């Protein structure tokens, strides 16, 4: 991507040619600083300047232009973010990290994006790996890894204030102060409060949802070198999210019920790196607490303790070895206030113990490189899972690189999948003696949960030409042991589900969850970064993807529904074009166009969105920007929530003005 660092103390990246940008370090693929041009994987790095020029107000918005990544807004602060399919409100095959701390929630196997309102001005880069990363990062890094890297405190000395006001009158204010700690390092403290724009109903009526809250935290970095340094950071947040839940299929009647959720959390992370045995080592530990309380429905909390160690040895001839281990303890608590959802047992505790080894082998200097590695992981939820990988890279010239890889990855079943019993429909049968049946989803009796498994093949090509680049990636994913549903062969069960009116119960048709699914997906990802003139640049991406799931034979309606949902929960194609204009004298402008295919059986139709951004660097320390969203579209639907059955939220034409002042 065309990148620059807007507020860092070091030299701005816009002064670098693209061939220099290709030498920027990437850490997520190999757990070490590695040049992008030498990385045998489909990876995209969004710099601070990429984020600024996109006009993004959140991490999901910044990801919209990355090939292979599909981003759909469900409502105010609610997103469906996925890599290579499996999209949903909780995309369970995508690992998301902030400075190496996982924000993947084991309650529902996904990310509560509505709780993640970061201060983007302090984000240094976002590394996006498309494809498995489990051999290094462990379970749940199946379809991809997103690692958000914030700036060191030593690079953010001084103050910064950011203020934003949108066309609906919602405001956001963020402040940061960085101070020098004489002889120690530097400290950054920050706080942010924001209220997000509301979505509209299909009729155009507004105020159907909402999201507001605050974030505060700190980061300390030592003044040592990368081979002898420490870091300590922490944050706390609280957000309120409101939406309307459709009751059709939940209570046998049409209508809406308010679904108000309070999301809060806090975390503390520390990391220390030092030289060891001619190489370098690091140890990282963090504590994390997440809690969600839904008024009238229940509460869920997750507490995590994580320890991670890695050691990169000095080169041994053609070999560069890295090894490490990790131990994670997770405690979950779920309190249900409605018979619609029950989880047993309500309180759980599980552990994950893992170790990894990776060897980068230089077969021929500057031409051929082979990477072999694997991770051995044991979870008390899904037992033992080996996750190996093999990557081969050929660089016939300084401008060209070609790679191929095979990887295996696993996803640990969520707490909800393992123990939740859910009443999700009261279905009419047409039988006068049994007019209604309660459809209840539950774990299959006697089921021993196993991790879902992926075997992935990838072929990629990357070329740098002058001040531009091109990337093409083909992939084939083969999924095994997917958690799906089948009808209980016993049929409707009596006495069934209790109700408050005669006859006092409704027969229950159980739908059993277990590892019954298999699927295959394949696709093409294209990315282009092309200078058109000295002051204009074009960035474009295109993704084509298709998924086929077993279970469409029609012998089991529940299994067929699971397979159909998997095939249709993501668009088959999407594209973006971003034109960047440098107008001179501190002025720049951006025009972004996105085309996204339909989702489901026409439930979410295809749409085209056009956004524009203009900014003026009024002075060295103050920038003013104006952003318009969905300029030629009165309103459109991007996704229908597939977990909480919320009212479809339409995105309307809107804009915002933002000022950033550094001092």
> Strand tally, please?
37
Considering DSSP H and I runs of 4 or more, what fraction of the residues is helical? Answer: under 10%
Radius of gyration (Å) = 25 Å
Mean pLDDT: 88
Low-pLDDT stretches: 2-23, 249-253
Give the DSSP E fraction (strand runs of 2 or more residues): over 45%
Largest sheet: 22 strands, antiparallel, barrel
Q: Termini separation (Å)?
A: 28 Å
- SS-based structural class? mainly beta
Query: What's the oligomerization state?
Result: single chain
| Structure annotation, total helices | 6
**Spatial shape:** globular
Question: In summary, what is this structure?
Answer:
The protein has 663 residues and is mostly beta strands.
Characterise the protein shown here.
- With 663 residues, this protein is mainly beta.
- The protein has six helices and 37 strands.
- Strand 11 and strand 12 form a beta hairpin.
- The longest helix is centred in the last third of the chain and has 12 residues.
- The chain starts with 17 loop residues before the first helix and ends with a strand.
- The N terminus is likely disordered.
């Amino acid at each position: 991507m065309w990148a620059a660092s807007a507020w860092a103390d070091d030299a701005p990246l816009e002064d670098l040619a693209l061939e220099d940008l290709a030498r920027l370090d990437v850490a997520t693929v190999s757990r070490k600083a590695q040049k992008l041009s030498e990385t045998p994987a489909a990876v995209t790095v969004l710099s601070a300047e990429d984020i600024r020029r996109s006009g993004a107000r959140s991490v999901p918005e910044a990801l919209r232009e990355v090939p292979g990544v599909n981003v759909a807004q469900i409502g105010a602060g609610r997103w469906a973010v996925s890599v290579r399919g499996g999209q949903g409100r909780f995309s369970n095959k995508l690992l998301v990290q902030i400075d190496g701390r996982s924000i993947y929630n084991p309650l529902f196997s996904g990310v509560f994006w509505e709780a993640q309102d970061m201060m983007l001005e302090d984000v240094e880069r976002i590394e996006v790996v498309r494809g498995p990363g489990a051999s290094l990062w462990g379970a749940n890094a199946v379809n991809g890894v997103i690692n958000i890297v914030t700036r060191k405190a030593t690079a953010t000395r001084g103050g910064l204030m950011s203020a934003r006001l949108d066309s609906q009158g919602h405001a956001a204010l963020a402040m940061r102060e960085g101070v020098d700690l004489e002889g120690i390092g530097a400290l950054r403290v920050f706080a942010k409060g924001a209220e997000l724009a509301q979505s509209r109903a299909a009729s155009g009526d507004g105020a159907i949802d909402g999201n507001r809250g605050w974030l505060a935290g700190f980061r300390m970095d030592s003044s040592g070198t990368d081979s002898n340094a420490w870091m300590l950071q922490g944050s706390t947040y609280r957000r309120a999210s409101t939406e309307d839940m459709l009751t059709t299929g939940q209570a046998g009647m049409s209508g809406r019920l308010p679904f108000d959720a309070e999301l809060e959390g806090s975390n503390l992370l520390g990391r220390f790196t030092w030289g060891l045995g001619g190489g370098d080592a690091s140890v990282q530990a963090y504590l994390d607490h997440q809690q969600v309380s839904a008024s009238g429905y229940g509460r869920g909390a997750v507490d995590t303790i994580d320890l991670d160690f890695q050691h990169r040895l000095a080169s041994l001839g053609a070999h560069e070895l890295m090894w490490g281990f990790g131990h994670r303890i997770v405690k979950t608590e779920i309190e249900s206030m409605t018979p619609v959802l029950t989880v047993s047992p309500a309180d759980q505790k599980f552990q994950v113990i893992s170790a990894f080894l990776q060897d980068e082998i230089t077969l021929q200097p500057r031409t051929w490189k082979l990477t072999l590695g694997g991770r051995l992981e044991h979870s008390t939820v899904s037992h033992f899972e080996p996750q190996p990988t093999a990557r081969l890279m050929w660089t016939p010239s300084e401008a060209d690189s070609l790679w191929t890889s095979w990887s295996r990855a696993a996803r640990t079943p969520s707490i909800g999948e393992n123990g939740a019993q859910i009443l999700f429909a009261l279905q009419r049968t047409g039988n006068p003696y049994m007019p209604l049946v309660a459809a209840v989803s539950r774990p299959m009796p006697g089921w021993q949960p196993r991790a879902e498994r992926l075997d992935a093949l990838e072929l990629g090509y990357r070329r740098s030409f002058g001040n531009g680049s091109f990337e093409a990636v083909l992939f084939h994913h083969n999924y095994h042991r997917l958690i799906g549903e089948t009808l209980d062969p016993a049929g409707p069960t009596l006495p069934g589900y209790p109700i408050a009116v005669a006859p006092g119960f409704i027969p229950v048709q159980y739908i059993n969850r277990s590892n019954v699914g298999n699927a295959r997906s394949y696709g093409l990802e294209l990315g282009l970064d092309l200078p058109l003139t000295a002051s204009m640049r074009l960035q474009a991406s295109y993704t084509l993807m298709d998924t086929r799931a077993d279970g469409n034979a029609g012998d089991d309606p529940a299994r067929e529904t699971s397979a159909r949902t998997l095939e249709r929960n993501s668009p088959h194609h999407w594209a973006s074009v971003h034109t960047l204009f440098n107008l001179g004298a501190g002025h720049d402008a951006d025009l972004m166009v996105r085309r996204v295919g339909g989702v489901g059986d026409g439930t979410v139709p295809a749409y085209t969105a056009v956004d524009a951004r203009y900014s003026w660097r009024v002075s060295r320390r103050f920038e003013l920007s104006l952003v318009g969203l969905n300029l030629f579209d009165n309103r459109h639907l991007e996704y229908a929530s597939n977990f909480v059955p919320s009212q479809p939220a339409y995105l309307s034409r809107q804009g915002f003005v933002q000022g950033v002042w550094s001092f």
